[in-house]
Protein backbone atom coordinates (compact mmCIF):
# COMPACT_ATOMS: atom_id res chain seq x y z
CA UNK A 1 0.00 0.00 0.00
CA UNK A 2 1.43 3.36 -1.06
CA UNK A 3 1.07 6.20 1.44
CA UNK A 4 1.52 9.74 0.16
CA UNK A 5 1.95 12.72 2.47
CA UNK A 6 2.89 15.30 -0.15
CA UNK A 7 1.60 18.77 0.76
CA UNK A 8 1.00 17.61 4.36
CA UNK A 9 2.49 19.29 7.41
CA UNK A 10 3.49 16.94 10.21
CA UNK A 11 4.69 17.72 13.73
CA UNK A 12 6.62 15.01 15.55
CA UNK A 13 7.33 15.94 19.15
CA UNK A 14 10.44 14.19 20.41
CA UNK A 15 11.17 13.70 16.72
CA UNK A 16 14.89 13.05 17.17
CA UNK A 17 14.59 10.28 19.78
CA UNK A 18 14.74 6.53 19.28
CA UNK A 19 11.21 6.18 17.91
CA UNK A 20 10.73 9.78 16.82
CA UNK A 21 13.77 9.60 14.52
CA UNK A 22 12.24 6.72 12.54
CA UNK A 23 8.80 8.33 12.46
CA UNK A 24 10.21 11.63 11.21
CA UNK A 25 12.26 9.97 8.47
CA UNK A 26 9.34 7.90 7.27
CA UNK A 27 7.08 10.95 6.94
CA UNK A 28 9.84 12.76 5.06
CA UNK A 29 10.31 9.82 2.70
CA UNK A 30 6.59 9.87 1.97
CA UNK A 31 6.63 13.53 0.98
CA UNK A 32 5.63 15.44 4.13
CA UNK A 33 7.02 18.66 5.50
CA UNK A 34 8.14 17.60 8.97
CA UNK A 35 8.70 19.73 12.04
CA UNK A 36 10.27 18.18 15.11
CA UNK A 37 10.84 19.26 18.67
CA UNK A 38 14.06 18.17 20.33
CA UNK A 39 16.23 18.77 23.40
CA UNK A 40 19.71 18.11 21.97
CA UNK A 41 21.05 19.90 18.90
CA UNK A 42 23.32 16.98 18.01
CA UNK A 43 20.29 14.69 17.70
CA UNK A 44 18.63 17.13 15.31
CA UNK A 45 21.80 17.34 13.24
CA UNK A 46 21.91 13.53 13.08
CA UNK A 47 18.30 13.46 11.87
CA UNK A 48 19.08 16.14 9.28
CA UNK A 49 22.00 14.06 8.00
CA UNK A 50 19.85 10.92 7.82
CA UNK A 51 17.14 12.78 5.89
CA UNK A 52 19.60 13.28 2.98
CA UNK A 53 17.59 14.43 -0.07
CA UNK A 54 14.57 15.25 2.10
CA UNK A 55 16.48 17.49 4.53
CA UNK A 56 15.04 20.69 3.03
CA UNK A 57 11.59 19.58 4.21
CA UNK A 58 12.75 19.06 7.80
CA UNK A 59 12.57 21.82 10.42
CA UNK A 60 13.17 21.70 14.14
CA UNK A 61 13.00 23.65 17.36
CA UNK A 62 14.52 23.04 20.79
CA UNK A 63 11.39 23.25 22.92
CA UNK A 64 10.17 21.75 26.18
CA UNK A 65 6.89 20.19 25.03
CA UNK A 66 5.50 20.31 28.57
CA UNK A 67 5.71 24.13 28.47
CA UNK A 68 2.25 25.18 27.35
CA UNK A 69 3.09 28.77 26.44
CA UNK A 70 6.18 27.77 24.44
CA UNK A 71 4.21 25.14 22.50
CA UNK A 72 1.37 27.59 21.85
CA UNK A 73 3.83 30.02 20.32
CA UNK A 74 5.57 27.31 18.32
CA UNK A 75 2.37 25.84 16.84
CA UNK A 76 1.03 29.29 15.99
CA UNK A 77 4.26 30.14 14.19
CA UNK A 78 4.32 26.90 12.20
CA UNK A 79 0.71 27.35 11.11
CA UNK A 80 1.48 30.94 10.11
CA UNK A 81 4.42 29.72 8.04
CA UNK A 82 2.94 26.55 6.53
CA UNK A 83 -0.74 27.37 6.53
CA UNK A 84 -1.95 24.19 8.22
CA UNK A 85 -1.15 21.30 10.56
CA UNK A 86 -2.26 17.90 9.30
CA UNK A 87 -0.68 15.37 11.65
CA UNK A 88 0.76 15.47 15.15
CA UNK A 89 2.64 12.48 16.58
CA UNK A 90 3.77 12.68 20.19
CA UNK A 91 6.73 10.38 20.81
CA UNK A 92 7.89 12.15 23.98
CA UNK A 93 8.20 9.87 26.97
CA UNK A 94 10.45 8.43 29.64
CA UNK A 95 10.73 5.36 31.84
CA UNK A 96 11.53 5.00 35.52
CA UNK A 97 11.01 1.73 37.36
CA UNK A 98 12.42 -0.95 39.57
CA UNK A 99 11.09 0.70 42.72
CA UNK A 100 8.08 -0.19 44.87
CA UNK A 101 5.26 2.35 44.83
CA UNK A 102 5.90 3.63 48.36
CA UNK A 103 9.60 4.11 47.62
CA UNK A 104 9.21 6.37 44.56
CA UNK A 105 10.74 9.80 44.92
CA UNK A 106 8.09 12.49 44.34
CA UNK A 107 10.31 14.19 41.74
CA UNK A 108 10.48 10.93 39.75
CA UNK A 109 6.70 10.56 39.89
CA UNK A 110 6.28 14.15 38.69
CA UNK A 111 8.74 13.56 35.84
CA UNK A 112 6.73 10.56 34.64
CA UNK A 113 3.56 12.65 34.68
CA UNK A 114 5.26 15.52 32.85
CA UNK A 115 6.81 13.53 30.02
CA UNK A 116 4.25 10.75 29.61
CA UNK A 117 1.01 12.63 30.32
CA UNK A 118 1.42 16.39 30.33
CA UNK A 119 3.18 16.37 26.93
CA UNK A 120 0.04 14.91 25.33
CA UNK A 121 -2.21 17.33 27.20
CA UNK A 122 -0.21 20.34 26.02
CA UNK A 123 -0.37 19.08 22.44
CA UNK A 124 -4.11 18.60 22.66
CA UNK A 125 -4.50 22.20 23.84
CA UNK A 126 -2.30 23.65 21.11
CA UNK A 127 -2.87 21.46 18.04
CA UNK A 128 -6.47 20.31 18.22
CA UNK A 129 -8.02 23.81 17.92
CA UNK A 130 -6.04 24.29 14.70
CA UNK A 131 -7.32 20.98 13.34
CA UNK A 132 -10.90 21.72 14.37
CA UNK A 133 -10.74 24.98 12.44
CA UNK A 134 -9.47 23.04 9.40
CA UNK A 135 -12.09 20.33 9.95
CA UNK A 136 -9.33 17.77 9.50
CA UNK A 137 -6.28 16.39 11.24
CA UNK A 138 -4.80 13.42 13.05
CA UNK A 139 -3.24 13.23 16.51
CA UNK A 140 -1.38 10.09 17.53
CA UNK A 141 0.00 9.71 21.04
CA UNK A 142 2.61 7.08 21.88
CA UNK A 143 1.73 5.50 25.23
CA UNK A 144 2.94 2.01 26.18
CA UNK A 145 1.91 -1.58 26.84
CA UNK A 146 2.37 -0.67 30.51
CA UNK A 147 -0.83 1.39 30.27
CA UNK A 148 -2.65 -1.96 30.37
CA UNK A 149 -0.02 -4.29 31.86
CA UNK A 150 0.62 -3.01 35.37
CA UNK A 151 3.75 -4.75 36.59
CA UNK A 152 5.47 -4.58 39.95
CA UNK A 153 8.07 -1.84 40.22
CA UNK A 154 6.55 0.29 37.47
CA UNK A 155 3.74 2.15 39.20
CA UNK A 156 4.72 5.72 38.27
CA UNK A 157 5.40 4.78 34.66
CA UNK A 158 2.28 2.62 34.29
CA UNK A 159 0.06 5.21 35.95
CA UNK A 160 1.29 7.99 33.69
CA UNK A 161 0.83 5.88 30.56
CA UNK A 162 -2.62 4.67 31.62
CA UNK A 163 -3.64 8.27 32.23
CA UNK A 164 -2.30 9.22 28.80
CA UNK A 165 -4.51 6.59 27.17
CA UNK A 166 -7.53 7.83 29.12
CA UNK A 167 -6.78 11.39 28.06
CA UNK A 168 -6.67 10.42 24.37
CA UNK A 169 -9.84 8.33 24.69
CA UNK A 170 -11.68 11.34 26.10
CA UNK A 171 -10.19 13.64 23.48
CA UNK A 172 -11.34 11.25 20.73
CA UNK A 173 -14.86 11.42 22.14
CA UNK A 174 -14.65 15.22 22.34
CA UNK A 175 -13.79 15.60 18.63
CA UNK A 176 -15.98 12.83 17.24
CA UNK A 177 -17.60 13.86 13.97
CA UNK A 178 -15.35 16.92 13.54
CA UNK A 179 -12.98 15.48 10.92
CA UNK A 180 -10.22 15.16 13.52
CA UNK A 181 -9.02 11.69 14.53
CA UNK A 182 -7.20 10.71 17.73
CA UNK A 183 -5.52 7.39 18.52
CA UNK A 184 -2.92 5.91 20.88
CA UNK A 185 -0.06 3.53 20.13
CA UNK A 186 0.98 1.02 22.79
CA UNK A 187 4.50 -0.32 22.21
CA UNK A 188 6.18 -2.87 24.42
CA UNK A 189 9.93 -2.39 24.91
CA UNK A 190 11.19 -0.77 21.70
CA UNK A 191 14.40 -2.08 20.15
CA UNK A 192 16.64 0.94 20.64
CA UNK A 193 20.27 1.15 21.70
CA UNK A 194 19.50 2.59 25.17
CA UNK A 195 16.98 -0.19 25.84
CA UNK A 196 19.49 -2.83 24.73
CA UNK A 197 22.09 -1.31 27.06
CA UNK A 198 19.59 -1.27 29.94
CA UNK A 199 18.46 -4.89 29.40
CA UNK A 200 21.47 -6.72 27.93
CA UNK A 201 20.14 -10.22 28.64
CA UNK A 202 16.89 -9.75 26.70
CA UNK A 203 15.93 -11.32 23.39
CA UNK A 204 16.05 -8.20 21.25
CA UNK A 205 14.53 -10.00 18.26
CA UNK A 206 11.19 -10.07 20.10
CA UNK A 207 11.06 -6.31 20.55
CA UNK A 208 9.29 -4.13 17.96
CA UNK A 209 11.74 -2.00 15.98
CA UNK A 210 11.20 1.76 15.61
CA UNK A 211 10.75 1.49 11.85
CA UNK A 212 8.04 -1.15 12.32
CA UNK A 213 6.12 1.07 14.72
CA UNK A 214 6.60 4.00 12.35
CA UNK A 215 4.78 2.08 9.61
CA UNK A 216 1.78 1.62 11.90
CA UNK A 217 1.79 5.30 12.78
CA UNK A 218 1.90 6.37 9.14
CA UNK A 219 -1.00 4.06 8.32
CA UNK A 220 -3.07 5.61 11.11
CA UNK A 221 -2.17 9.11 9.92
CA UNK A 222 -3.07 8.37 6.30
CA UNK A 223 -6.47 8.30 4.57
CA UNK A 224 -6.18 4.50 4.64
CA UNK A 225 -6.60 4.68 8.43
CA UNK A 226 -9.62 6.97 8.40
CA UNK A 227 -11.90 4.37 10.02
CA UNK A 228 -9.65 4.11 13.09
CA UNK A 229 -10.58 6.64 15.78
CA UNK A 230 -10.40 6.46 19.57
CA UNK A 231 -8.33 3.28 19.45
CA UNK A 232 -5.31 2.07 21.42
CA UNK A 233 -3.23 0.03 19.02
CA UNK A 234 -0.91 -2.62 20.50
CA UNK A 235 2.51 -2.91 18.86
CA UNK A 236 4.11 -5.50 21.09
CA UNK A 237 6.24 -7.49 18.68
CA UNK A 238 6.70 -10.94 20.20
CA UNK A 239 7.32 -9.68 23.70
What does this structure look like?
The mean pLDDT is 94. The longest helix is centred in the middle third of the chain and has 29 residues, at 106-134. Helix 1 packs across helix 7 (210-221), helix 3 runs parallel beside helix 4 (106-134) and helix 4 (106-134) packs parallel to helix 5. The protein contains 7 helices and 7 strands; from the N terminus they run E-H-E-H-E-H-E-H-E-H-E-H-H-E. The protein has a 7-stranded parallel beta sheet, with helices on both faces. It has one domain (9-96, 120-149, 162-235): Rossmann fold, CATH 3.40.50. The protein starts with 8 loop residues before the first strand and ends with a strand. It is an alpha/beta fold and 239 residues long. The radius of gyration is 17 Å and the shape is globular. Helix content is 44%, strand content 16%.
How do the strands of the widest beta sheet line up side by side? 3-2-1-4-5-6-7
> Approximately how much helix is present in the residues?
40-55%
Largest sheet: 7 strands, parallel
The string of secondary-structure elements, in order, is EHEHEHEHEHEHHE
Rg, Cα atoms, Å: 17 Å
User: Based on the structure given, which CATH architecture is correct?
Assistant: 3-Layer(aba) Sandwich
